[in-house]
Write a structure and sequence with these properties.
- This protein has about 220 residues and is α/β, with parallel strands linked by helices.
- The chain has one domain: Rossmann fold, CATH 3.40.50.300.
- It has 8 helices and 6 strands.
- A 6-stranded parallel β-sheet has the order 3-2-4-5-1-6, sandwiched between helices.
- The relative contact order is 0.19.
Amino acid sequence: MKTKIKQNEISGGKKLRERMLKTVKSYEKLSEADKHCIHIYYGYGKGKTTSAIGLIIRALGAGKKVVMIQFDKGYDGKNEHYSERNVLRKLKEIGYPIEIIATGCERMNADGTFRFKNVKEDFSEVKRGLKFAKDYVKDGEQDLLVLDEVIAAVTNNLLDKKDVEDLIKLFKKNKRFEMVMTGHKLWSVLEDEVDLITEMKKVKHYFDKGIPARTGIEI
């Protein structure tokens, strides 16, 4: 004999449904500016940029305009180290409203190792990325702005904490879109000033047993 399931059981119970309805009604009362939030995806686990790319795909699927500015992830027009950009460029070519701005110098050495030491050109590139970010925050028509590795640029001594904090202040004066930042470490001002923080925590990683970054998985 089939057991009938009540609607409130499907939705998680009457009290949960009431809380959800209350949230929906509260959201509807917010100003348009207050409906827009700042996200941070951070940590030393895998998945920060991956999550941001997933959100980009979702936004594009909903017909939203997207801008992604990447810090310290340059592209010389030939050597593409970040495979997701191949797809995002194709999406732009076929009409999806996305702009991809890659800033930074080449860090991959010919032998497959990574250059960690900063050089003069790295600082010029990060300033270029910061200017793009400020311009899009103030005047851009995007619905979603992703500042990939902007927090990592602080960890890597390319930007000051104040540079990121000033971007957040600028966003709060121009709250007409959603903004995402990624990187490694947080500090107290970020924790206080943003709306969503997700930590990618490394519990276990195959890199520790000798498996490097692989095309299509990490790059």
